[in-house]
Structure formats: C-alpha cells, structure tokens
Amino acid sequence: xxxxxxxxxxxxxxxxxxxxxxxxxxxxxxxxxxxxxxxxxxxxxxxxxxxxxxxxxxxxxxxxxxxxxxxxxxxxxxxxxxxxxxxxxxxxxxxxxxxxxxxxxxxxxxxxxxxxxxxxxxxxxxxxxxxxxxxxxxxxxxxxxxxxxxxxxxxxxxxxxxxxxxxxxxxxxxx
Length: 175
What we know:
Blueprint: H1 12-19, H2 24-38, H3 43-70, H4 75-81, H5 101-116, H6 121-137, H7 143-165
C-alpha cells in the first residue's frame, strides 16, 4: 500500500483519521466521564463504563509490555531501509509494531460493547475489525500485528466480562 500514497483515488487522510478511533485515550477519558455522570443515576451504565475502562487499561498495559519484549520493526523500516525482524526489548517506537495497540484497543472496546449490548454486536465488531485493518492499509502494521492485537483485545475484554458480570451471566460469552 505504501507505493499507493500518491494515488488520489485512495483516501489515506480519511483512513488515517478513522484509524485514530483506535486510540485508547478516547475510551479511557470517555469511560471516566460516563462513570462520573452515571454512577448515581444509573448503576448499570456506570458498570458498563467501568468495564470498558478496565478492558481498555488491561489490554493497553498488556500490549505495551508485549511491544517492548518483541521489538518488531514497523513496515516503514522494511519499505525504506529493508529492515525486517525483531529487536528484542526495544523501547524505540519504530520497533513497536507487534502487536498493534490500535487494534488491541479497537477490539477490546468492540468486544466489550458487543457483550453488554448484544443487539448491536455485529456493528461493534465490524467497526473494531475495520479500525484494526486500517492500520495495515496505512502501512503502520503487518497483518499479523493486527490479528494478534485484535485477539489480545478480545481476550482481555472477555476475561473482564467474566469478572464484572459473573453473578449475572455465568459463563455466557456468546458473540
């Protein structure tokens, strides 16, 4: 895709803007605000807010630890300098491709919302997958980075769903 950056038929600016929905700050701040607003008015909404906050933080901490351990070179290093592979325990941002943080966040939030609002689950999951795939289109990540990031987000969300809702829905993880 990188060689297509000059192609006016591909809306890279719009795709980049869309991919920013995968930034964890939106969900952390939004969940905190929602929790504060709803904690006394509607405990169910406050609980959802706390759950989304927790899944965003848990998956975010996990993905950032894994990024440092693996130190995978970003696609741009291969495209420009033919550097590919891993630089174990690297803190350099160009070696933090694996797994994708945006994909982790997108799928953690999408899965979380799909579990608590099952009527809209297909839309939440489709949006999460689209955000994740946008990272490949933008050559920010390899497909494997996005797949593992998505799985990490999904797993974190399902684990915390069990923690938050185990008395109400014992073992019900149907997506």
